[in-house]
Design brief:
Length: about 260
């Protein structure tokens, strides 16, 4: 097993995941890239091998599958990542009474179950070497209820809570956990979630994936527990803590309604 540093990045073929992987490549850290798109993974691997001179392994695995996280861990074959980035995730738009139960179960399997399993599977080796960084992708959605995306918002609240609790549990072990909580970002997320026409992405400022990734990467490397990119998002999170929850819920519902409903 090589003593070189490795980063395991899920959801690495596009968006914030690709941008985070680029940060590691820039700093000469070898990569294990996980996503469902084999062609995109191979293109990124070829580029970074050539431009950065690093080793890149690709794993075309669907982490929403029951054994997806276990497949990833088995494929490491003894390689111990110094960095674990749990970026893979999906959204689902619609009122809770209208959304498909199987689609929501897939969301929970990817956003919660696989993330938790990868943390638990990689943690023993990190603890044994006395060093490791885990970056979990949460969201500003984690700080509020989310009408029209109830299950997604709840899943991100789980990720934030888990990450903060893990960081405290692991204090003094050399393993640090960071939760990255971006707001609306220019990526393929909104199209995948079916929410392109909502006010959430039309009325609020949108960040670029590179900016979000840099904030998360620096926070992880510095051992910070929480990273919220952008002054506006930081202000929003602080404001949410002061307002009555019912007001916050109504505000999110108004922003999230289809454009023709407002």
């Amino acid at each position: 097993m090589s003593h070189a540093q490795w980063a395991l990045v899920t959801g690495a073929s596009s968006g914030i995941g690709e941008a985070l992987a680029a940060c590691f490549a820039r700093d000469g850290i070898n990569l294990v890239l996980v996503a469902r798109s084999e062609d995109k993974l191979q293109a990124l691997a070829q580029r970074w091998r050539g431009e950065r001179g690093i080793e890149v392994k690709t794993l075309c695995i669907d982490l929403a599958l029951t054994d997806g996280a276990d497949q990833v861990f088995a494929a490491l074959d003894g390689l111990v990542p110094s960095y674990l980035v749990n970026n893979a995730g999906i959204g689902l738009y619609g009122k809770v009474q209208d959304t498909d139960l199987d689609a929501e179960q897939r969301l929970l399997d990817l956003n919660i179950r696989s993330l938790t399993r990868l943390c638990k599977l990689c943690l023993p080796a990190m603890l044994a070497q006395g060093y490791g960084h885990i970056l979990n992708l949460a969201s500003t959605a984690a700080f509020q209820p989310g009408p029209y995306m109830a299950v997604y918002y709840a899943s991100k609240a789980y990720v934030l809570s888990l990450s903060e609790a893990m960081a405290e549990d692991l204090k003094g072990t050399g393993v640090m956990v960071t939760a990255l909580c971006p707001g609306p970002t220019r990526s393929g997320f909104q199209a995948g979630a079916g929410m392109e026409g909502t006010g959430l992405f039309k009325r609020l400022a949108m960040a670029e994936v590179g900016q979000v990734a840099e904030v998360g990467y620096r926070a992880m490397m510095n051992g910070r527990r929480l990273a919220i990119p952008g002054f506006g998002n930081k202000l929003l999170v602080q404001s949410l803590r002061l307002l009555p929850r019912r007001w916050v819920t109504a505000m999110v519902a108004w922003l999230s309604r289809p454009a023709k409903s407002r």
